Amino acid sequence: MEEPVRYFEWTEALSVGVREIDAQHRKLVEMVNALNEAMLARAGREAQKAVIDGMVDYAATHFATEEKYMQSTGYQALSTHRVEHERYTAKALDLKTRVQKAGFVLTLEIVDFLKDWLTNHIQKTDKAYQKCLVEHGIR
Fold first, then answer.
1. Whole-angstrom Cα distance, residue 99 to residue 91?
2. Range of the domain at 128
3. 4-18, 70-84, 93-107, 118-132: which range is least confident on average?
4. Total tally of structural domains belonging to the chain
5. How many CB atoms lie within 10 A of CB 66?
6. Which CATH number fits the domain that encloses residue 55?
7. R_g of the chain computed on alpha carbons
8. Mean pLDDT confidence for 14-23
9. Taking the model in full, what pTM does it have?
10. How far apart (Å, rounded) are the C-alpha atoms in residues 25 and 21?
11. Which of 33, 27, 52, 28 lies closest to 105 in space, CA to CA?
12. What DSSP assignment string belongs to 89-122?
């Protein structure tokens, strides 16, 4: 039997060259896939809520890891990067609140937003710190 086509594929283009951060990004990609699968399966609100809660919590852990590395290496754009993390966290918390309300339906628009945000954030904002971290021996 063939493997189903994944909604969101991890590729080397998403790698920032730091093992811990790449592993966390992979986990976030898998969480977006799990959310997509829950939506396609028309899983109940509880299942959707569990995935979204996990994503919100894990994103906070991931952002703290990135910011720790950027702080320790003196990365110049840390404050700008932190603002992006804060914007995503606010959106994710809003989504978490909406999922808790009766009648909320997870849509492809929401899953697409998460996929697009993660892809763009990694390929633009995160790639910007790659050189700094690698030059400081963080791999």
1. 12
2. 17-135
3. 93-107
4. 1
5. 24
6. 1.20.120.50
7. 16
8. 96
9. 0.90
10. 6
11. 52
12. HHHHHHHHHHHHSTT----HHHHHHHHHHHHHII
